[in-house]
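seq:
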Amino acid sequence: MKAAAAKSHIYDKKVEDPRIFPFETSTAYSLWRKALNKAKLNGKDKSTNRERIHPHVLRKFFRTRLGAVIPVDVVEALMGHEGYLTEVYRRYSLKDLKKFYLKGESALLVYTEAAEVTKLRQEVDEKNKTLQTNQNRLLTENFEIKEKMAKVESENIGLKDRLVRIEKAKLPEAEQKIETLSKELGIVKGRLSLLSRALDIIDYAVNDEKDADDLREWLDRRRKERDAEEYDRENEAKRKFLLEKKNRHD
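struct:
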């Protein structure tokens, strides 16, 4: 329509045209005559001096072929005869008229057998049913997948919230234990420092080399014993801390 409107220089042709065949009657007659000329079916009846084939024969063809398949009053109404319109519209709905037309549509086709048209229509209907079934199945599967995804997402959010609550509850306790261990470690380091200074003083104060060696040996042994005890306590505290941390993450 846009192309036709653009080419029209004489008449004001609109792009939006509600008519089924958007052209004038004269255009239709011109198309009809050109078609007859190409088919070599043109010519006039000598007795009447009228065209042997004119557009009105299309209505006769419609009436004759369709009237053999569906009720005549319905055919007349479809042709637009006013005498039948009111009665037919009172008896049938537009949906019923559509069914009547589709039932007799094959009779209006040219160079095509009615049985073949019926077979093709049945094949199309079967394919449409199959497509509709597949579409409904896919929609159902899609809906089920969305439900499962929503459930998984909800569970994931719940797990994340639970993990956050656990971390918030355990973190202050862990920090407090770390602080306690740090204080104890500082005390141990202080004691070791005092002990080291004491050893240095003893080395200078004792003149007897043998006594100094015996005393130093005894102090070294005591220091090793204390170091071992402090080392065991520190390792035990670290082990407990790491075990609690592992259990918290699990």
